[in-house]
Amino acid sequence: MIYQGKAFRVLPVEDGIAELQFNLDGESVNKFSRSAIEDLAEALDAIRADKGIKGLILTSGKDVFIVGADINEFTQTFKQDDETLFAELMSVNNVFSSFEDLDMPTVAAVNGIALGGGFEICLCADYRLLSTDAKVGLPEVKLGIYPGWGGTVRLPRIIGADNAVEWIASGKEYRPDSALKVGAVDGVVAPEKLKDSAVALIRSCIAGELDYKARKQEKKDKLKLPPVEAMMVFETTAAVVKQQAGPHMLAPIASVKTIQKHAFMERDKALEAEAKGFIKLAKSSVCDALVGLFLNDQQLKKKAKASSKLAGETNKAAVLGAGIMGGGIAYQSALKGTPILMKDINQDGLDLGLAEATKLLSKRVAKGRMDAGKMGGVLNSIVPTLSFGDFGSVDVVVEAVVENAKVKKAVLAEVESQVSENTVLTSNTSTISITELASDLKRPEQFCGMHFFNPVHAMPLVEVIRGEKTSEASVATVVEYARKMGKTPVVVNDCPGFMVNRVLFPYFGGFSALLRDGADFKQVDKVMERFGWPMGPAYLLDVVGIDTGIHAEGVMSEGYPDRMKRDFKTALDVMFENKRFGQKNGAGFYQYEQDKRGKPKKVVDESVYALLDEVCAQSKAFDDEEIIARMMIPLCMETVRTLEDGIVESVAEADMALIMGIGFPLFRGGALKYMDSMGVAEFVELADKYAHISPLYAPTDKLREMAREGRTFYGQ
Predict the structure, then answer these.
(1) Total Cβ atoms within 10 A of residue 144
(2) What CATH number is associated with residue 660?
(3) Which of 100, 178, 670, 698 has the fewest beta carbons closer than 10 A?
């Protein structure tokens, strides 16, 4: 043993060749914390002091190579003043550069995932070998920053500026074949041959067969790109990146500008330029929100993993009701490895469900994400049936029939008599009380809600709704099944609308009141889309379905009459009366035509304004800030109420549910994070300004108390 630390150790391999192994004590994965960086520096000191070492391979003692930096440290680190943060960044860069500058050949032998800082240390090595199981990338833009430990400096010098911009600005992860194609790695080998191949590569360097010193020098020099060509590359890529990233995600375009800025600097000066740009991003509200979401996601995963101890296995599932939703659920279950029965009362429904699954699988094949053989295997694990004959062996049933309490209760009672005593029943209802649906069941403790969002394959959230009598084991089983399906489950307690729809409909209530007072729905859509929503409220209602919206609104007004019961006729009512149901029948607030790909395309229909005359005041202009306030305050206030009422257990779960369930603007971090960033006292003051419109705007007593005491939801 040449060196032994808590993160790194240095081991002799054979004469003149040593192994620098990252194997973080007490952790399942390797990640760079402050202490791990300090340990790396000491390990490198030991290597330099040992004159017998002529070559070095960088390895991992875990299945995952290095997942990157320890993001738990980001929040406090990024709060430091600019000078302190710059010094810290350069301290890490000095350690990484000292690895790069070792007077010997170095090879990174990457056996698993190497992301962010984990891949940046690999770029410091002279050569990179990947196992066929590995995956590499620089995903920092997803946290609102760009690589800050030399990634923007070294990668362009290794794979060229245009390829580096694509890698860094997209934040994508790359498999070995893609990494090899652009020259980010030097070879791909089977896992069992990785270490031996790395040692052989070192031997070739020591023997003078490979010029590793030229590799080192290339990364220390200026970027080899003629000035005119450089200008063309950066201007072209900047335009593409700006269009793809949109106006709110700052990091992708900042990464392009930073690479351009330091392209003709030598390494050490380039690293300083990278660090200065990094600091600006690290201090942004976007970074704060995105890092917060990452930590929220980790909290949800940790909670779901903890509950899995109570979960029963789901080796076989069933969905009741085929069609688009049932087919989507069946597809997702089968795709992720859980065979599923798909039952309907008629063959047409089954045909529709199978067609939906086939369409989704065909798209995967067309994109090269699956071959025809795998597609056939997935389809074969979806078993269509018109009877309950095979339901005796099913572990979880998802009821996805029409949104009608009477029908659902009848179907659930029937299936309960056909399954084993251990089977967990669930309902995909979006609004109907789980406690009410369980009222006629013999085993209500084995029933809960499992609310998928449409389209099932694309939407990551599943609300798991606990009824009054639902057991914790049933909840845990459904949470685990949702995770197995590749979804993020959020457990909520039963109430009208559960978490997500309960919060969404006050937002629609704000929209209805705006139109009543003379706002143009097109202007409201544009303002809210600029705010960051994927679509404005009128467009969203068209996509959801006006008839669906009317039904859900009725449930909400009955459940919360004090603030959600309307005392005026709305634009939504007018759309419904005129059978303008939205995309489903080609006309709602907008008209819909098919585009070249056969998808509905939104076009303006001026005749709508005449229809709305009876319920809308004379048209008048509203400024953007008023529209945003009148739309967002009801949504935020209802989110607060779900937290105070115990419908959702934590701030993290509330914000993640809105991000994943209704597309709350990612860069704002969720409704509660948005309130924190505004200031709780400032939010209360703004809400009071609009409180005359509706009780939806009234702050709760607890929120007022938070404002007075200067507290925040995230406790910062």
Answers:
(1) 27
(2) 1.10.1040.50
(3) 178
